[in-house]
Amino acid sequence: MDNVSDHPTNILNDLASKTLSNCKYYLPSEVSLTTNNIKLIHCNARSLKSKFDKFLTLLTSLSCQFDILGISETWLSDNIMSDFNIPGYNIVFNNRQNSRGGGVAMYIADKINYKQRQDLEINNDAITSKFIEVSSKNCKNIIIGLIYRTPQSNPNLYFDYFLDISSQLIIDHKKIVFLMGDFNIDLLKLNEDSNVNKFIDIKLTNFLYPLISIPTRITSSSSTLIDNMFCNNVNGCISGCIYSDFSDHSLIFSTIEFKCSTMFKIQKSHSYRKINDDNLLCFKQKLSESLPLISPYNRCSRFVCRP
User: Could you tell me which residues come within 8 angstroms of residue 211 by beta carbon, excluding any fewer than 6 positions away?
Assistant: First the structure.
């Protein structure tokens, strides 16, 4: 970025007057989002196993139903994932294989058409990610990524990984790209930490704009903005943090403007006629009563028997 106006700080300031300025804290009952948009939520659980019931209670306390639930630091293993299903959602995940901790899981509402994008994923002790692509016949597809980076890992490992997949993310400019997760890079230290500047720079270079602008982890001694969501389409976006005692990280949420109904699976309905001896007898009686009284043209419309 050679132009002064293209400096990350100037771009973020411009975004702040548009999307980021609307980012604020909410109580669970205060989150009210339109049904036309895809609604996404993320939280660092720091062990979903020990907090799963609490997480389900939290979901019921929200004033709207989210389409995509992203959980980082699940601390789960492949052999117990069936114990963590949520009715109405499909689950995809990547668990850390060689050590405790880490792991990500994404819950996708049953109504959504999607496929997994394992070509974009990584899973090691430094970075774990999960990607899906939401498909639609008449609108832009949406690539959704969930990423967790451990705080002890070298940030350059993440930068290299993201640069590797960024070429695939921008191959088709017709797709919307949405990333969420715990990146363990504090955006409040922009212009104070070169790694933060580099993190923002590679996101903005790929037209991915941050949607969360307020601290997501607050302790008695610090406030950090390490959880975030990024998207290349911020039109009509609503984002914020939700107060909760579920974790020491705030839940973060956002929406993607997506008004194409073909994203959702078509719910087919079927009607059946119950056939038994009583109904067959009823049908024969109606048939014998109707035939002498109606013309051949109208007979078909009269062959109805209600149980």
Answer: 19, 20, 23, 228, 229, 230, 231, 234, 237, 239, 254
Amino acid, res. 102: G
Encode pLDDT of 170-213 as tens digits: 766 678 999 999 999 999 999 999 999 999 999 988 889 999 99
Q: For residue range 103-151, list pLDDT tens digits in order.
A: 999 999 999 999 999 999 999 999 999 999 998 777 889 999 999 999 9
CA dist 167 and 177 (Å) reads: 12
Amino acid at 162: F
Residue position matching structure tokens 């088709």: 172
If asked whether residues 255 and 159 sit together in one domain, one would say: yes
Lookup: tokens for 121 = 């994923």
Q: Summarize the chain as % helix, strand, coil (round to 5).
A: 30, 25, 45
- Do 287 and 175 lie in one domain? The reply is no
Same domain, 196 and 90: yes
Per the structure, the complete domain to which residue 230 belongs is given by 4-263
Judgement on whether residues 118 and 227 belong to the same structural domain of the protein: yes
- Domain match, 167 and 206 both: yes
Residues 195 and 281 in one domain: no
Q: Reduced to 3 states, what is the DSSP secondary structure of residue 129?
A: strand
